[in-house]
Write a structure and sequence with these properties.
Layout: H1 17-47, E1 48-49, H2 53-80, H3 89-95, E2 106-107, H4 108-133, H5 138-162
Parallel strand pairs: 1-2
Helix pairs in contact: 1-2, 1-4, 2-5, 4-5
Length: about 170
């Protein structure tokens, strides 16, 4: 079982220590998912090959940079709530409940299909986390909702490479 962040000794005005700790725990889960996403995006950037290589390769770096900003914002909010964000490789591995990204060197279509599934997981769990924060901490919820908007946009960019003219996501090689 992943270690939860230490309970804060203080938190932001308007939240109890217990609520501040609960919000920090939700944000810690998102921090792990975002750290994993940033590493996965960079892995794909390095290992994508084949037709549309340069388009996909260049599309991913701005996504990585944006996810890094999300990571920083999330970790800083955890710290603001009085908890210590855990962003070490060991903390990420310990807290992950999903399998590692399955592909190494692979075609653009194969990577984009796998990346679409990654974005499905991350965006869905971000939405669930934002729902859990509703009425508990509006500031943290807004952070997650802003991030969710970006994550959904990035997934749309990925899907645009997979989509047929008819709107199907079943692109061929």
């Amino acid at each position: 079982m992943p270690r939860q962040p230490d309970r804060p000794k203080y938190t932001v005005p308007g939240l109890t220590l217990a609520h501040g700790g609960d919000v920090a725990a939700v944000l810690q889960e998102r921090l792990v998912a975002l750290l994993d996403l940033a590493l996965t995006l960079k892995h794909v950037h390095w290992n994508v090959v084949g037709p549309r290589f340069i388009a996909v390769h260049k599309m991913l770096d701005p996504q990585v940079a944006s996810v890094h900003r999300m990571i920083d914002k999330t970790a800083e909010r955890v710290a603001t709530l009085g908890a210590a964000p855990r962003g070490t490789p060991g903390a990420v591995v310990e807290a992950r409940s999903w399998p590692d990204y399955p592909l190494g060197r692979a075609t653009t279509v194969d990577h984009l299909r796998a990346l679409d599934a990654v974005y499905d997981r991350v965006a869905s769990s971000h939405r669930d986390a934002a729902d859990r924060l509703h009425g508990l901490d509006d500031v943290s919820q807004r952070i997650l909702l802003h991030q969710l908007r970006r994550l959904e946009f990035f997934q749309w960019l990925v899907r645009a490479h997979l989509e047929s003219a008819g709107g199907s996501l079943g692109a061929t090689r």
